[in-house]
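in:
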């Protein structure tokens, strides 16, 4: 390896004076800053875009430029260069040409003709650049004021015009004098009166009030009656519109097309998250654009790019920042790539000898770059030395260090680690940090490489001392030696990466950060890193979460020490380990037997403590905490139905378990106490770390089970899998086989509850017991049931299931239920539920319903019955119930007959109760109902033993009574009977007009109790027909006579004089009434009703209709007379409605004459009163 020094590789002295931070008001180093500005490719492209917009003859309204970049990325340097490129900076007018010429040369060197042209074009646009750092210009301005930003702009603008910047009201006073052309005279007079120049006097304020007022009075001729400055101060007001108008007026006083540029450094930091200031900036830029017609520009720098700023505020505050986006249409973003390029060109550019010195180093180690510098364990992947040129350009740095250090700075800043008003990186830039590190390394020989911890030196002075106190403490207190040196370096590296979100600080990745020389012994470095990390963790400088380490701040260290001192019980630690095993690793306390498909629950134990309910089987995990030798553990396993899992010893796992429990307890105890914001933040972080720690523990427990020895019955067993869950599964399979020797009877068939329906429907006659897989199970169950019956024990399905699920069987629930279904289907066992035998067809619905139902289902071996009696019962059922769908099982057949008899009784009884009042002869059902009631509700065996004595009587009753009654109720006979009853009821008023006894014959048949038998119903039908015909003849004669009467009266109406003069409407009304009367007669089925209808029409309806016709005739006659009013309609009364002459006996002609005279008087009185009399 070359003995050349690293400092000799660089084209320029790496330790030369370079300003780490560019200051807006620094004129001393301006020439160097212009000369050493590196125009990167990205910066050149952004600058070209800006200049194109700036020189566009058509103003598009975007008068803002937003320059963004992370800490120390060079955005202040770029802003300063823009200020001199775009305009004249007051006090340094000649610098614009120097800057433009220098940048043209840089563009030429980069062969960027477009940028060269734009630089030439822009230098002919007259402009003034006001370059300032907003923090420096606003030390006394409260950012919470709504016009804080405006105050700074006004202050800078006043200062540029030569007015007083310290007090805006004084500057307004100077402006007014200047506009009147009196400012110089005022300054001279004031100097004569006060004895000090005006520049000094205006700063003395109230002490010079009198002289100011006198001088003002002398130059203006106005009386000195009051303090002029006090009056200005009282009347002064500040608004964005006024400011923009002043800028516009100033621009109008300048040469044509002159522009004014506000170049504002660190405006993003000044605004921060203050929405009002952001909107204030928007309004300033927009108003300047409007009032000045695009001649006033605002260029700002910020650590955040515009899209991030606007996006965050829009999401969190709901404001519309679209206008500010339009104003700051030009965005220049400096990236880590820009920084790397600047660093390479300004600091790391090599001389001619460097390539020869570095080539052998590259050739020797380029194949190892990925192993040396790539992060693993889920961390983000950064750029490596990917080419020889990049290696030469970046050496002695590593490419990952630039973006990684940027991420570290951003994270530290977000957590308020840096000193300074805005907690930024302070006085350090990326360039300055890199120079410090390179200078420190320049005396090292080629082969040394910058380690990431070395970057800490570059920012140490800008960091709050409290944040790095632990590093200083470790440097002072850790014991001397190589481990101490590595430990301190690790602390520095861990401090830098503490808040980098996509980096895992594992020992492997930390080794990458500490690697500082090619050819270094990685194995030894790894060992030193591990030792140093153990030391740091032991002394609580860092905390470990799994395999990830984290730097502890002073406050975090105090809390970590309190956590480690928290007292916890060993049972709490054991409980957490058991929880990890059951919930996160094996996830449950049951296994499925791979051959039979049966689920076997087991009890989980850790050492001597159970963590689940007792079960026939157990899995006992044994940790080193139990303190027993392997021999004792093996010996204790003999005679127990348990699998012992002897966990591999892992000291780190038990340390993490203890820390997990301690952290959880500590956080819970501190949750209710009063905490500072930082303590709350730390506790929240501890919670998150504990969640990660549990995941890490899960992985370690899995490894411990994967490496565990498995023990059953005093011997170690072999399993094939290395997966922890599969290992437990295989161990349990062996334990199950040993514990349940009769499990093999199931074979490899995995039964399910859906198989019960198939088993129940199998035809017993077709089963081959030699090949039936259920037969061995059924035989075992039948044998046990028989033994239970012999002992006089009532057995339920639940007891059967419980017995055969246990040792030595271990059968699955579906297999047991299927075997029971087979026994029931082959009539070898009977089952009863709620006093009723469970039918074969009910088995699929009843058996799978669950353990509660199983407890209610009694099961017993079924007795044998006499085949002849079974056959007789079956024959009776076929004949009595007229069905062929009967169960094969004797008991089921008995139950079926019992149910059918109950249904038959219920049906007949309901029919009798419903219809006996309508059909009195249904009392005949009493005898069959009595017979059925005697055989109802008996035990199933009774129907197979004694029922045969009742079958003949029941069959006779069915033939003689039940079937005829059923046929009557369901057939046409019922209709005949109902029609006859209806006929008698309907024509009862007409029957007395009969001259024969047709009605008596019908009534006699209906009263017959045996009417439903034989030919009686046909006789009833004939008699009813004869009765209907006889009444129809009488009704027809009556209807004809009534119709004739109505017809005669209708003809009288139509022939009357009134008919001729009636209206069509009245005629239609009369016709309708005649038709209605005629139709009522036709439809009437009662002689009295027909006669009444004829009489009412002849005596009442006729008079009403005639009166209606007469009314029309009178109306027509009166209308013929001109002007005659329409008379009222005549009142027609029937003769019978008038008073009658007094009653007397007419014996002589004189009596007749007297009667007629009295009648005549009655009639004349009616006519004289305007009535018409109908005879």
């Amino acid at each position: 390896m070359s003995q050349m020094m690293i400092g000799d590789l660089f084209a320029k002295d790496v330790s030369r004076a370079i300003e780490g931070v560019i200051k807006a008001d620094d004129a001393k180093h301006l020439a160097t800053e212009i000369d050493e500005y590196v125009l990167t490719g990205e910066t050149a492209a952004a600058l070209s875009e800006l200049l194109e917009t700036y020189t566009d003859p058509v103003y598009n309204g975007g008068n803002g430029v937003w320059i963004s970049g992370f800490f120390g990325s060079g955005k202040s340097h770029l802003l300063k260069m823009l200020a001199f490129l775009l305009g004249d900076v007051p006090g340094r007018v000649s610098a614009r040409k120097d800057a433009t010429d220098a940048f043209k040369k840089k563009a030429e060197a980069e062969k960027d003709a477009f940028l060269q042209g734009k630089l030439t074009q822009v230098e002919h646009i007259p402009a003034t650049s006001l370059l300032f750092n907003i923090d420096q210009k606003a030390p006394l301005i409260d950012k919470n004021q709504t016009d804080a930003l405006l105050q700074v702009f006004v202050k800078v603008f006043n200062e540029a015009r030569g007015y007083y910047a310290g007090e805006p009201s004084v500057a307004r006073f100077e402006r007014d004098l200047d506009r009147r052309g009196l400012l110089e005279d005022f300054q001279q007079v004031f100097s004569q009166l006060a004895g000090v120049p005006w520049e000094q006097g205006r700063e003395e304020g109230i002490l010079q009030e009198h002289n100011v007022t006198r001088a003002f009075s002398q130059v203006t001729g106005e009386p000195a009656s009051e303090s002029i400055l006090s009056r200005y101060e009282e009347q002064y007001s500040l608004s964005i519109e006024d400011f923009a108008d002043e800028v516009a007026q100033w621009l109008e006083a300048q040469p044509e097309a002159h522009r004014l540029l506000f170049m504002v450094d660190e405006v993003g930091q000044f605004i921060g998250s203050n929405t009002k200031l952001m909107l204030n900036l928007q309004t300033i830029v927009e108003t300047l654009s409007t009032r000045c017609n695009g001649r006033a520009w605002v260029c700002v720098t910020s650590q955040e790019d515009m899209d991030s700023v606007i996006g965050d505020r829009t999401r969190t505050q709901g404001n519309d920042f679209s206008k500010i986006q339009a104003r700051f249409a030009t965005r220049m973003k400096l990236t880590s790539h820009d920084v790397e390029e600047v660093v390479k060109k300004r600091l790391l550019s090599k001389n001619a000898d460097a390539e020869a010195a570095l080539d052998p180093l590259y050739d020797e180690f380029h194949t190892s770059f990925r192993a040396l510098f790539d992060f693993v364990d889920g961390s983000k992947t950064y750029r490596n030395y990917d080419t020889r040129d990049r290696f030469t350009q970046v050496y002695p740095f590593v490419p990952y260090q630039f973006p990684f250090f940027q991420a570290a700075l951003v994270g530290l800043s977000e957590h308020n680690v840096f000193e300074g008003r805005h907690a930024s990186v302070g006085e350090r830039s990326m360039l300055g940090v890199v120079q410090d590190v390179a200078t420190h390394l320049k005396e090292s020989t080629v082969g040394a490489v910058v380690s990431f911890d070395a970057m800490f030196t570059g920012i140490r002075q800008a960091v709050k001392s409290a944040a790095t106190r632990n590093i200083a403490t470790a440097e002072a207190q850790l014991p001397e030696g190589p481990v101490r040196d590595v430990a301190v370096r690790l602390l520095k590296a861990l401090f830098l990466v503490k808040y980098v979100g996509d980096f895992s600080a594992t020992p492997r990745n930390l080794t990458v950060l500490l690697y500082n020389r090619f050819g270094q012994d990685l194995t030894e470095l790894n060992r030193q890193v591990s030792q140093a990390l153990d030391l740091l963790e032991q002394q609580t400088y860092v905390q470990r979460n799994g395999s990830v380490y984290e730097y502890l701040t002073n406050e975090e260290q105090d809390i970590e020490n309190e956590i480690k001192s928290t007292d916890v019980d060993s049972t709490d630690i054991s409980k957490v380990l058991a929880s990890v095993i059951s919930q996160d690793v094996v996830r449950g306390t049951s296994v499925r037997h791979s051959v039979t498909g049966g689920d076997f629950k087991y009890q989980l134990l850790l050492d001597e403590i159970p963590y689940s309910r007792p079960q026939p089987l157990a899995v006992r995990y044994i940790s080193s905490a139990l303190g027993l030798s392997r021999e004792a553990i093996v010996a204790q396993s003999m005679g127990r139905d348990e699998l012992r899992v002897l966990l591999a010893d892992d000291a780190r796992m038990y340390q993490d378990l203890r820390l997990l429990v301690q952290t959880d307890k500590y956080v819970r105890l501190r949750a209710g106490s009063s905490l500072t914001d930082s303590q709350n933040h730390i506790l929240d972080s501890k919670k998150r770390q504990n969640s990660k720690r549990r995941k890490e523990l899960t992985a370690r427990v899995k490894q411990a089970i994967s490496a565990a020895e498995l023990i059953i019955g005093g011997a170690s067993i072999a399993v094939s899998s290395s997966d922890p869950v599969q290992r437990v599964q295989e161990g349990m399979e062996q334990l199950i086989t040993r514990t349940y020797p009769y499990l093999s009877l199931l074979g490899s068939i995995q039964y399910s509850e859906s198989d019960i329906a198939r088993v129940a429907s199998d035809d017993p006659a077709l089963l081959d017991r030699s090949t039936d897989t259920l037969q061995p199970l059924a035989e075992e169950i039948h044998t046990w049931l028989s033994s239970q019956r012999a002992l006089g024990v009532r057995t339920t399905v639940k007891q059967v299931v419980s017995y055969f699920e246990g040792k030595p069987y271990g059968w699955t629930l579906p297999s047991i239920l299927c075997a029971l279904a087979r026994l029931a289907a082959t009539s070898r066992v009977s089952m009863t539920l709620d006093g009723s035998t469970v039918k074969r067809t009910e088995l699929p619905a009843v058996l799978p319903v669950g353990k509660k139902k199983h407890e209610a289902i009694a099961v017993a071996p079924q007795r044998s019955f006499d085949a002849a009696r079974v056959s007789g019962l079956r024959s009776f059922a076929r004949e009595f119930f007229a069905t062929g769908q009967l169960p094969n099982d004797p008991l089921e057949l008995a139950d079926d007959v019992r149910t059918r008899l109950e249904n038959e009784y219920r049906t007949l009884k309901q029919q009798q109760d419903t219809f006996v009042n309508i059909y009195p002869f249904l009392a005949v059902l009493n005898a069959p109902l009595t017979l059925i009631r005697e055989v109802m509700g008996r035990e199933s065996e009774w129907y197979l033993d004694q029922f045969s004595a009742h079958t003949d009587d029941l069959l006779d009753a069915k033939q003689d009574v039940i079937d005829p009654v059923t046929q009557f109720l369901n057939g046409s006979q019922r209709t005949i009977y109902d029609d006859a009853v209806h006929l008698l009821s309907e024509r009862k008023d007409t029957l007395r007009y009969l001259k024969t006894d047709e009605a008596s014959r019908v009534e006699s048949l209906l009263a017959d109790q045996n009417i439903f038998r034989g030919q009686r119903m046909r006789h009833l039908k004939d008699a009813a027909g004869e009765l209907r015909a006889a009444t129809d003849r009488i009704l027809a004669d009556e209807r004809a006579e009534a119709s004739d009467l109505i017809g005669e009266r209708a003809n009288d109406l139509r022939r009357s004089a009134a008919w001729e003069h009636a209206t069509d409407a009245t005629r239609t009304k009369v016709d309708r009434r005649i038709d209605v009367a005629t139709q009522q007669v036709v439809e009437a089925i009662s002689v009295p009703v027909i006669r009444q209808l004829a009489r009412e029409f002849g005596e009442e309806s006729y008079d009403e209709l005639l009166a209606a016709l007469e009314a029309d005739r009178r109306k027509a006659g009166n209308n013929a007379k001109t002007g005659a009013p329409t008379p009222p309609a005549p009142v027609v009364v029937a003769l019978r409605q008038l008073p009658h002459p007094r009653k007397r006996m007419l014996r002589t002609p004189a009596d007749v004459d007297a009667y007629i005279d009295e009648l005549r008087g009655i009639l004349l009185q009616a006519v004289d009163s305007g009535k018409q009399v109908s005879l």
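note: The first strand starts at residue 64 and ends at 69.
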